[in-house]
Amino acid sequence: MLTIIDRVEDGRWTLLSSSALDFELAEIPDPQRRIRVQQMLSAARERIAIGGAERTHANHLRQTYRLRALDSLHLACAKSMLADVFLTTDDGLLAAGRRIPTREFPCVIANR
Known about the structure:
The chain is mainly alpha-helical and 112 residues long.
């Protein structure tokens, strides 16, 4: 996480966010951890709200690749924002996302 923050702060990477991520962060039970993560996300230069295109793509990903609903929304938002890389610490999402063909999800999915 520190490497990610460093790269965002020095301008090498652009951090993107979404309303799906806001929803997920609001569910973090530890208030101190939630605040820390929300502060990190305040460095996001772009944020997307979930619209019809994201819902449609998320439903397709969920049904076709058996992704969890929230995971499919994260990926659909990343695609809509033309992200180059989708970083996750969720091993299940990492494995599931790698099954998606590049033509459907052109982002690199990684955990570092």
